[in-house]
Amino acid sequence: MTLNDDIRALSAAGLFQQLTAEQLRLLAFGAERLQFRAGRRLYRQGDRADCGFVIVSGAVTLSRSAPDGGKPVQSAGPGSVLGQLALITETQWMTDAQADTETEVLRISRALFRRMLAEYPETAMAIHRQLSDDLQQLIKDIEVAERRLRQAPEL
């Protein structure tokens, strides 16, 4: 794959859609392209998260570890960004991530992402707003789920 392919893949990812061509080029140049066979784990819940992944091709299942085994939470495909929070702050993976099929990703280190934000403060503010909006939507979704659970008959 070429640098232009990586730029296209990044520009399709929600978090990076507002970046300029120059900013995308900086991220693409510093990103690491990785391939995972079906069944291979990208990361484990609870491990230190120091990067984000943009799915270029393939599919990944995110699951939560539980004493009785993992519980699938979400599927992610091309254009999805895994680890948005890890791009800006120290954190741990909240889920396991496993490739369902042959999967190709771009790995973006926190250091690279922070460097881009430091060089482009206006972009940092826009991404901050987007992450804040995403968090507010997540809180609303949790409140809706909580109301539904309270109304559900006990089994």
TrEMBL record:
It comes from the Bacteria. Pfam families: cNMP_binding. GO terms for molecular function: DNA-binding transcription factor activity. SMART domains: cNMP. Residues 15-134 form the Cyclic nucleotide-binding domain. One of its GO terms (cellular component) is cytosol. PANTHER family: CRP FAMILY TRANSCRIPTIONAL REGULATORY PROTEIN, DNA-BINDING TRANSCRIPTIONAL DUAL REGULATOR CRP. This is Cyclic nucleotide-binding domain-containing protein. It comes from Oceaniradius stylonematis. The lineage of its organism: Bacteria, Pseudomonadati, Pseudomonadota, Alphaproteobacteria, Hyphomicrobiales.
